[in-house]
Structure formats: structure tokens, C-alpha cells
From TrEMBL:
Name recorded for this polypeptide: Cytochrome c oxidase assembly factor 3
Any Pfam family the entry gives: Coa3_cc
One GO term of the biological process aspect: mitochondrial respiratory chain complex IV assembly
Organism: Podospora appendiculata
Source taxonomy: Eukaryota, Fungi, Dikarya, Ascomycota, Pezizomycotina
Function: Required for assembly of cytochrome c oxidase (complex IV).
Length: 74
């Protein structure tokens, strides 16, 4: 029913109530540190991958001297 308000953790402007803020406070620092750790791990893998791929000389890839025209078969 539209007229009945149930008590909840958010007010009419969809802001967190003081009770929700108090309930989440013990986990805030741990969650932030875990998120920062996961983000640093992902960026570390990304940087490592770019470094390793950037060092490849592609010596094993055979490149033709002249480009082959489309429709032309060897």
C-alpha cells in the first residue's frame, strides 16, 4: 500500500540512516583495504603483461616481403 511506510535503512531522499551507517562502520576500513588490494593486484598483472609483451621481438613471425593482392592465389 502506498500510504504505509515501513521502517528501513534509507530515508525519503534515499540517504543512509544513522543506524545503517553505524552497522556498516566496522566493515568500512576492511572493505576499502580489500578493494585497494584487489585493484593493485589487477593493475600489477596488467603492467607486468604490458612489460612482457613489449619486450617481444616477434622474431618467429614470418613477414612476406611484398603484400599479396586480394584474389591472387599462390
Amino acid at each position: 500500500m502506498a500510504g504505509i511506510q515501513r521502517p528501513g535503512y534509507y530515508d525519503r531522499q534515499h540517504r543512509q540512516s544513522p543506524a545503517l551507517i553505524r552497522a556498516r562502520r566496522p566493515y568500512l576500513l576492511k572493505n576499502a583495504l580489500l578493494g585497494a588490494g584487489i585493484t593493485a593486484f589487477a593493475f600489477g598483472i596488467y603492467a607486468y603483461t604490458l612489460t612482457v609483451v613489449g619486450q617481444d621481438e616477434f622474431e618467429d613471425v614470418r613477414v612476406p616481403d611484398t603484400p599479396v593482392a586480394r584474389g591472387e592465389k599462390k
